[in-house]
Amino acid sequence: MDGDRKPELQIKPGRYEDAALGFRNHWYPALLSSEIGEEQLVPLTLLGENLLFKRIDGQVYAIADQCLHRGFKFSTKPECFTKNTITCWLHAFTYNFRNGELVAIPSAPDSRLIGKRHLHSYPVQEINGMVFAFVGDMDPPPPLAHDVPPGFLDPGWTVVGAVNVPSACNWRLAADSGFDPNHIFIHKDDHFLAALDRPFPIANRIVGGDTFHEITEVTGPGPKGLVDALGKSEPVFEFEFECDGERGRMASKIPPNEMAYLAYGSIEGSIWLPGALKVAPWPILGMVHYEWYVPVDEKNHRYFIAWGKPCETDADKAAFAHEVHTKWKYLGYEQFNRTDLIANLGVETGTDGLPYRSVENLFEGDGYTLVWRRLASQHNRGVQTRRGIPTA
Amino acid sequence: MDGDRKPELQIKPGRYEDAALGFRNHWYPALLSSEIGEEQLVPLTLLGENLLFKRIDGQVYAIADQCLHRGFKFSTKPECFTKNTITCWLHAFTYNFRNGELVAIPSAPDSRLIGKRHLHSYPVQEINGMVFAFVGDMDPPPPLAHDVPPGFLDPGWTVVGAVNVPSACNWRLAADSGFDPNHIFIHKDDHFLAALDRPFPIANRIVGGDTFHEITEVTGPGPKGLVDALGKSEPVFEFEFECDGERGRMASKIPPNEMAYLAYGSIEGSIWLPGALKVAPWPILGMVHYEWYVPVDEKNHRYFIAWGKPCETDADKAAFAHEVHTKWKYLGYEQFNRTDLIANLGVETGTDGLPYRSVENLFEGDGYTLVWRRLASQHNRGVQTRRGIPTA
Amino acid sequence: MDGDRKPELQIKPGRYEDAALGFRNHWYPALLSSEIGEEQLVPLTLLGENLLFKRIDGQVYAIADQCLHRGFKFSTKPECFTKNTITCWLHAFTYNFRNGELVAIPSAPDSRLIGKRHLHSYPVQEINGMVFAFVGDMDPPPPLAHDVPPGFLDPGWTVVGAVNVPSACNWRLAADSGFDPNHIFIHKDDHFLAALDRPFPIANRIVGGDTFHEITEVTGPGPKGLVDALGKSEPVFEFEFECDGERGRMASKIPPNEMAYLAYGSIEGSIWLPGALKVAPWPILGMVHYEWYVPVDEKNHRYFIAWGKPCETDADKAAFAHEVHTKWKYLGYEQFNRTDLIANLGVETGTDGLPYRSVENLFEGDGYTLVWRRLASQHNRGVQTRRGIPTA
Fold first, then answer.
1. C95 within a domain of the structure (yes/no)
2. Inter-chain CB proximity C72 and A346 less than 8 Å
3. Per the structure, how many domains does chain B have?
4. Which residues of chain A are within 8 Å of residue C121 when distances are taken between CB atoms?
């Protein structure tokens, strides 16, 4: 809740292991555009804060979902007497939805609070079929372009936000796993691969170096992130082992050909603050895959996917949007990336009740995870807390 | 659990903000008379304590619902070998239900515990179709007349307890809101008003003074409470506001006439320790409305309503009771006061996990709430705690 | 999770009141043999630890159900490429199921972790149709024979494990009650007694001594336990009491004859660390009853029953197993011992949220309970804790 005075704002990065609720002062996807119509109210929890979204004359706004007066949650019984206001159902405190200002109190029309107090108003931007909200104190906020993967806002590309689903685990489990190329073992039975008749590795071995040093840091003035070293790695399409006289074998469902090695090596993954992954090309040549892990609370996040492709004409753009919604949402998400959600839940279940990272025994392949945690710890704009208390 | 010795009892008022479990050493409504028949056992939680009620030869008694011996909860498998006893199903410890005394142990008929140890026995009084229990240590307890709104026990009036419903929020949210005349905004769409074709204000403005100083304190030897200043207020039947070029209007569904101002101004509300409201006249001229907010635990209370009217003959009394059960329970509760429960839940939801009062920004109309909290803090007989630890 | 070095192990008994999770370094029943088939995986929580069982070539093994690497819980999506291994579904870390050794990582086949790190492997023994696991750090563990009631492993007896059910209360409530002969009051309406036309006491009175001093301690080199003093007690088949002019009577459903006193007096109960009861003869002459209270977590345990009888030929053994599964599982458990679970739940409910023992008022008959708690506190091999912190 904002007071009248604004103390000088200190932007100080915090540790990834303290960021159970995510990083403050960043932009996050909140909704797909299709999920909020004109004059529709949508309540959402982001980074442990309750927000209320409304689309007014086409533009989306967001305010704190809690009346200043006694804390009544607007969305339990929302009341709007005009398009651009919200009135608390309890004592009729009425606010400008566009900026959070308290504009009227019927029982005290001359109250000293009017025009002075205001609800927190969250900066919102809508692009590529997605609604982004800025959760933080910076005013003005930094540009959205600093908080999305490079290329996401490129005008030559058509990008279509298509997936927004809940996942009952901490967002860091998803981020750690998303950038880690060794988690691909989980995808070996995914129907996506069979449908495209595509050989896919079950593991990934670094060649001539290690996973700690071959990852490229990007820490210039724009988005901060890491680019993987798949080009310096060798995909593993089959693996045999022996244990006490028994032999076991794991392998790609579709046997690899020469092209498979080349194709996989040309894929580049990168991860970006506050928690977004870019994979290109993916799911097919000529397309780019973006995904986000958006903190809801300590035990929940939302998973967003957008896919992009260069399009020139409006007809091309419409055709691509149609393809995303009818084909890739099914094959790319339901038959592939949804498997990631299952994996992350298994880690949440296995480590439930234990502090983040406390049961880990990292191995040679975990440079990805360590380097990501280090970059995230150094370049975020502050750790989100509940009432000032960090939670691990 | 009572020991053999009784230390000198100290009655010391505690702070309202510490009273999540209510105030100790007061009388509270526990049941409607109709909810407990002859020899019926009813388990209930009040102020965080588990009580077991039984009606024996017409009179209601209450004991702690937990065997002295190993803590077995009687009501999970109650066993009564005589009308006036309860036997623990586990080891057959048998108690006098009328006073809690341990009267027999089959496996140790000469035990030194018999006749010495006893369950806590809660004083009970039944009046006006309601069963009141005293939760505390005072022996004897203070008179019931000190803990109910004035007039409730008046022999010339017929008072009918009619509503006893659970509400999943702390009792203080309900008490704060009940005495606050500005919460009436929530009732504007209630069918009760339409059914009686009654104009009803959407807000209330103090005139010539402020809400802090016009409220009357009653702190004599009997009930302690506050009487509102509606007579010095101006009801607001419609209100207009402007925001960024749009105009909004809120108004009473039924347009007001001259009588409406007069009628509303003649209503008097008052709040009484440990947490009861009186509104008169209400719901119509000639009737009085009583309601209670009874703490169950930190997150739950029970809401009771009784209505009264002067009656002379038995036929009048019976007719009034009939009217309460067939008409007012529907129109007065279902179509009006139930809306209060929804409002209180919205505050509980909005402030969930936050300390009581921590998100408040009070305004000029909140004198009611502040004065009530001050009176309650000064005149209660102690704060109820769990095992000696106050909870906010 | 085991490290590379093993610090010198200290075996130090801990207090029963701290043992909410049970005693460490003991053998516990985990499963009935029939509940785990060849190559079947069974996940189980014992003493707050997650175990995964597998039967390989007839023998049952158990490992920690959590991958060393990132904590993924194997059983959320188990994968076995050979009979004797388990592979983590997330990054394909592959372990020898027989000893927990890490045998392969496809993405780092030469990892320094391989052959060095291992999952905790729990010693397992299968006997009498039951699978026992050792939860602790002793290597090798003490003999199973030290942790089961005397006679359980006697080769002349056929013992059939038959019941394994969950109970939503702390294991100590069950152990306290099991050895306490006064809890028999709960059984008075059990169909088992009617079906066998058997008089059964409702209480039990010690004669010539007290329950504290007549119980026999067994603390030699083998199992540690206590033998009851029923032989020095007098069974009570009926009891009358008076309260405020009313007379009450409790009695055995089947009136006792001379034989009933003799028969009951010849039953001997005994309790053994880490939490097992033996009753002989029971349920009929010539049979022995064994039961265990196996800690799952602070609020749950599992209840096991096995019945035994001397058998000479294989046909005798098969006939007895058939009798156990068709007759005693129904009459002995469903119609008798299941009542104990209800009783224990009533104590859990009545004392919920309160520290163990905090509401007790023990009487003359509670020597059984006190002596058991003392013996258990003196002779266990350590208190099980969550991450080093004892829980009451």
1. yes
2. yes
3. 2
4. none
Is B391 domain-assigned?
no
A216 pLDDT more than 70:
yes
Average pLDDT, chain A: 93
Contact residues on chain B for A73, CB-CB shorter than 8 A: 346-347, 349-350
Q: Do B80 and B169 sit in the same domain of this protein?
A: no
Please check the confidence at residue C231 and state whether its pLDDT lies above 80: no
Beta carbons of C185 and B77 less than 8 Å apart: no
Question: Tens of pLDDT along C348-377?
Answer: 988 887 877 778 888 888 999 999 999 999
Angle at CA of residue A76, ends A70 and A79, nearest 5°: 85
**Chain C residue whose CA is closest to B80:** C248
Find the CATH number of the domain harbouring C75.
2.20.25.10
Q: What is the model's pTM?
A: 0.92
Per-residue tokens: C208: 């010539």
Residue C200 lies in a domain: yes
Residue C239 and residue C372 in one domain: yes
Q: A182 and A313 share a domain?
A: yes
Residue A366: closest C-alpha in chain C:
C69
* A279-291 mean pLDDT: 97
CA distances, A238 to each of A246, B64, C103, C150, C354 (Å): 17, 68, 16, 54, 56
Task: Find the mean pLDDT for residues C133-150.
Answer: 97
CA distance C378 to chain A (A): 31
For residues C99 and C201, membership in a common domain is answered with no
Count other C-beta atoms under 10 Å from residue C355's C-beta. 11
pLDDT at residue A316 is higher than 60: yes
Do B94 and B156 have their domain in common? Answer: no
CA distances for B384 relative to B176, B293, C358, angstroms: 18, 15, 19
A147 at interface of B, judged by CB pairs closer than 8 A: no
For chain C, say whether A392 makes contact (Cβ under 8 Å): no
**A236 inside 8 A of chain C by CB:** yes
Confidence of residue B7 (pLDDT cuts 50, 70, 90): low
Q: Do A250 and C81 touch (CB under 8 A)?
A: yes
Write the CA distances from C106 to A174, A253, B15, B122, C115, integer angstroms.
22, 16, 64, 70, 14
Residue that wins the pLDDT comparison between A165 and A265: A165
Six-digit token string for C215: 């119980």
Q: What are the CA-CA distances from residue B152 to residues B34, B128, B222 (Å)?
A: 19, 9, 12
Average pLDDT value for residue range A35-54 = 98
Using only the alpha carbons of chain C, give its radius of gyration. Answer: 23
Q: Residue B344 — pLDDT band, cuts 50, 70, 90?
A: very high
CATH of the domain at B310: 3.90.380.10
Chain A CB within 8 Å of residue B139 CB: no
Contacts of A113 in chain B (CB under 8 A): 361, 363
Which residue range is the domain that position A76 belongs to?
67-118
Q: Are residues B342 and B368 in the same domain?
A: yes
Show the 3-state SS of C296-357. Answer: EECCEEEEEEEEEEECCCHHHHHHHHHHHHHHHHHHHHHHHHHHHHHHHHHHHHHCCCCCCC
Within this chain, do residues B199 and B114 fall inside the same structural domain, yes or no? no
Note the ipTM here. 0.91
Say which CATH number the domain at B72 has: 2.102.10.10
**Tell me, what's the pLDDT at C227?**
95
Q: Mean pLDDT throughout B177-196?
A: 94
Domain for residue B3, yes or no? Answer: no
Task: Name every chain A residue with its beta carbon within 8 A of the beta carbon of B247.
Answer: 82
Same domain, A277 and A353: yes
Instruction: Show which of B75, B109, B135 is a domain's final residue.
Output: B135
Top residue of C101, C102, C107 to mutate, by most chain A CBs within 10 Å, is: C107
Indicate yes or no: CB of B361 within 8 angstroms of CB of A117.
yes
Which one of C70, C83, C103 has the shortest CB-CB distance to A241? C103
Final residue of a domain: which of B80, B113, B135? Answer: B135
Asked if C92 has any chain A CB less than 8 Å from its own CB, the reply is yes
User: Do B350 and A67 lie within an 8 Å CB cutoff?
Assistant: yes
